[in-house]
Amino acid sequence: MKINKQTYQKYAKQRAPSSPLFKDMFFAFLIGGLICAFAEGIYNLYLYLKIDETTVRTLVPVTLVFIATLLTGIGVFDSIAKYAGAGTLVPITGFANAVVAPALDDKSEGLVMGVGAKMFTIAGPVIVYGVIASVIYGVIYWISGVIS
Amino acid sequence: MNLFWDILKAFLVGGAICSIVQIVIDKTALTPARILVCLVTLGVILGALGVYKPFIEFAGCGASTPLTGFGYTLAEGVRKAVDEKGLIGALTGGLTGSAGGITAAIFFGYLFALIFRSRPRD
Question: Does B121 reach chain A within 8 Å, measured CB to CB?
């Protein structure tokens, strides 16, 4: 059978698991929302424990990162993410998961080029583009301050 | 009661952001890496435009927990550093602002990658 690009795409589309948009959106909303609600809960818990607000602003993402990396390690994160889609990807939990998961998968390549390097397969680009955007903003902000 | 309302707002706003991104994923088949890069960059831009701060004041962790909030932290860090130290702040502010989250991800990520084994995925 001759396979050109179009027939392949048609074939791939038929065989790909169907992904009903509304079901995906529902689970993304539910689980993403629950993660954010949980974050708000511990934010208020930390404030209640008399931790000052600047520290709490760092402590909340750190807590979420801790939980997400742990759940990835014990293999629970993947089973939730399968249903949640963007629900676990978009919150900081997705970033944390993206640090551990490739490091775990390529652990056999060693502690330096396996774990050490692969941690940044996805987190690297995220940090690179975030930092570049922030530097550009900083320069523009500085110039606008000098002019005015 | 106030706490309940705060948590509900975080749930609704955070959930809404995730389901909007879910539409983008389903319709475009962008890879997770690209999605995360877009979100963080968008967060920096919205932070720079001054849009994201009022959004966080309204939705709390519903706005700060999605990765756009991470971008906002970068922008906010840079703005503060430029105010205090001038142009050099453009280089130092971003990572200073987001240091906790990044370092936690590296430290816990490394720790749990050492402790646990990878398992086959289905």
Answer: yes
Residue B99 inside a domain? The answer is yes
Q: What's the pTM value of the predicted model, to 2 decimals? A: 0.89
Residue B31 lies in a domain: yes
B27 in any annotated domain: yes
Q: Is A52 exposed, middle or buried (0-12, 13-18, 19+ CB in 10 A)?
A: exposed
Indicate if ipTM > 0.90: yes
Domain that holds residue B46: 2-115
**pLDDT tens-digit series, residues B45-78:** 999 999 999 999 999 999 999 999 999 999 999 9
Instruction: Tell which B residues from 61 to 120 touch A, by Cβ distance under 8 Å.
Output: 61-62, 64-67, 69-71, 74-75, 77-79, 81-82, 86-87, 89-91, 93-95, 98, 100-102, 104-106, 108-119
What digits encode the pLDDT tens for the residues B27-48?
998 999 999 999 999 999 999 9
Q: CA A76, B29, B17 angle in degrees (round to 5)? A: 65
Of A21, A90, A92, the CB nearest to B26: A21
Does B66 reside within a domain? yes
Number of separate domains in chain B: 1
B-chain residue closest to A99, CA distance: B109
